[in-house]
Specification:
The radius of gyration is 40 Å and the shape is rod-shaped. By secondary structure, it is an alpha/beta fold. Helix 2 packs parallel to helix 3 and helix 6 (181-196) packs antiparallel against helix 14. The mean pLDDT is 92. The longest helix is centred in the middle third of the chain and has 64 residues, at 111-174. It has helices at 14-25, 37-46, 63-72, 90-98, 111-174, 181-196, 200-209, 222-225, 233-250, 256-267, 288-302, 314-323, 331-339, 341-350, and strands spanning 7-10, 31-34, 51-55, 81-85, 103-106. The protein binds fe (ii) ion (2 copies).
Length: 353
């Protein structure tokens, strides 16, 4: 037991006070005393008391009332109170426990009994203090660690997004696409996904991954990518390999964004009627990401100048989509696109080259 624990004796009878004090002085370095209830309240508020020995028959305030007051104060309620009473009736003892005392000692005081009870409760109090301190410390540690993990997580996600967007931009610059092509494709894809009924998370994933749809073009020769005329059949065959090439670049990853990007790179040139490439998939065998990116990519490509053609007028573009409904494109997506054309045109305006 620590001899520097602070015990407070509250007793208005000088003789009794001395008796208790003498017993406790054998265990503790420093024993505090108070002669009235008010003095006791002042003392506990201003010093770190570990235990109170409280005489019930005080002159100013009844001892039970003093105990009740202490137990109502949050910072003090963990101090154990042992009450001293000459009234050993059950009513009196019950009252002591009712107001929050932990134990009681009967007068006349027996030194051994007093010593044993005080020691037990001081030890309990100190052990409890340590536990509380440890718990507070742990809580701070845990909340700091959680904060750190969250920061790291955000950092990783931001990095992923940036790297993916940059990769998309690299692919774009290689194929001399117009400046904001991948940005617009990302926005159109997101909007189509939401309107089609994908959930917010999936729509976001698609938006973040779709800039990579042409990443495979980094492996296509410049002479083909930038040819200012129609490609020969051989050249077109080479060009078409960009879908599979892009897929191969990304397919190894377990990251959701890269997995989505792999699907998009692989399937953005598939056609609903099975005449696309590289696998000639049909209908809903083409992943929804591929079907959506196909609409977004073609809509944007037709509306922009390219090295081999001028931008098309809107009417002509819409005619093509109607014509290719259920041929090149998922009919549901074409309907959604036409119905919400204004929103798509807004995006086109916002991210003009
Ligand atoms: Fe492509
Ligand atoms: Fe594209």
């Amino acid at each position: 037991l620590r001899s520097d624990a602070k015990v407070l004796i509250v007793e208005d009878n000088i003789v009794n006070l001395k008796i208790v004090q003498n017993i406790l002085n054998k265990i503790f370095d420093d024993v505090l005393t108070a002669k009235t209830g008010n003095e006791c309240l002042d003392l506990v508020k201003n010093s770190d008391v570990d235990l109170i020995l409280l005489d019930v028959g005080l002159l100013d305030i009844n001892g039970f009332e003093v105990a009740r007051k202490i137990k109502r104060i949050n910072s003090l309620k963990s101090i154990p109170i042992i009450f001293i009473t000459s009234d050993s009736s059950y009513e009196s003892i019950e009252k002591g426990f009712e107001v929050g005392c932990v134990d009681y000692i009967k007068k006349p005081i027996n030194a051994k009994e007093l010593t044993a009870r005080v020691k037990t409760h001081v030890e309990l109090k100190l052990a409890n203090d340590q536990l509380v301190e440890y718990k507070d410390h742990l809580e701070v540690e845990i909340s700091n660690t959680i904060k750190e993990i969250k920061n790291l997580n955000n950092e990783i996600e931001d990095t992923q997004r940036e790297v993916i967007f940059t990769m998309g931009a690299i692919g774009e610059s290689r194929s001399k696409e117009t400046g904001n092509h991948v940005k617009r494709v990302a926005e159109y894809s997101y909007l189509l996904a939401i309107l089609y009924g994908l959930d917010e998370n999936e729509a976001k994933l698609l938006k973040e991954a779709s800039p990579m749809h042409d990443i495979g073009k980094v492996a296509i020769p410049d002479s083909i990518l930038n040819k200012p005329a129609k490609l020969t059949e051989d050249e077109f065959t080479t060009m078409k390999t960009h879908a599979k090439l892009g897929y191969n670049m990304l397919a190894h990853s377990k990251r959701p964004i890269l997995k989505a990007a792999a699907i998009i790179a692989h399937e953005h040139h598939e056609k609903y009627n099975g005449t696309g490439y590289p696998r000639k998939l049909t209908g809903e065998d083409i992943h929804i990401y591929g079907r959506i990116t196909a609409v977004a990519d073609v809509f944007d490509a037709l509306g922009s100048d390219r090295c081999y053609k001028k931008a098309w007028e809107l009417d002509k573009i819409l005619n093509l989509f109607q014509e290719e409904r259920a041929k090149h494109f998922d009919p549901k997506l074409v309907d959604i696109f036409i119905e919400n054309l204004d929103s798509f045109l807004e995006i086109r305006d916002k991210f003009k080259d």
